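PT: before anyone asks, these are the final sequences, not the draft ones from last week. 284 residues across everything. Please model them as a single complex and drop the result in this thread when it's through.
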Amino acid sequence: MRSRARLARFAGGAVVTAALLVAAPAMAFASPQPTPPPPPAQVGAPAPAPEPTQVAPQTTSATRAAPPVTVAPQPVPDTPSQVRKLPTGAPETGGGSTATAPDGAILLAGGLGVAAAAAAAGTVVARRRKAASRP
Amino acid sequence: MLDVPSIGVHASVMQLGLNPDGTVEVPPLDSPDAGWYEESPTPGALGPAVLLGHVDSARWGPGVFYRLRELRPGDEVRVTRADGGVVGFRVDRVETRPKAEFPTAEVYGDIDHAGLRLITCGGSFDQVRRSYEDNAIVYASAVSGAHDA
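LR: through. Structure below.
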């Protein structure tokens, strides 16, 4: 009888202990701690300088060479030319009317014209004189 | 307007572009006007402004640049722009070059000032090709009215 009661008491204690062990983590999840609010931002205040990043030196091997650094070529700034589109070839700026004769040919042509006009005028004058001399 | 007092030029200036084959347009043969290559700087702006004109035409005789070869260093050239500004240039040099060796870089290349190029034809006329064998080119530099646009 006494041992049965002792066994029952032990069993009860074990149940209580197990219940406490199960409940403890559950309680930890059930009641999360509130996070403190962030400090109010200050308008115009300078942003804190970032911590300088320190790269730990390579300590693997003294004889190991550093990997080659490949530097991308800097793009050359595209400066536009003053003449935006470059023509090809040479311009064709002549029809040839004054080319077959030296420059004087134009003057000669003009001179001939004047001479012809003068000759015609002279003819008219001569005819008038002739007419005037008629009785 | 283009004025070159020493050779009696007083001409309007039309705008010229490129032909489909990439050569520069020229004024119509019967036109008394000179032409400004519109892909070159405005006269008075930094760079070589390029003006072209005919030495002659088969039908109409002497063209607007018939006497271009008579220009000498120091001669005055004036260009009146569409905005009313007048730019004065002085002739630096005059040269005749075979068309087969047209000095593209010298004529159209970048320069450090406001320049002017006057171009026409010259030399012998090839009756078969109906083309002059040379180009007469006048190089000038702005002396007044230039701007850095």
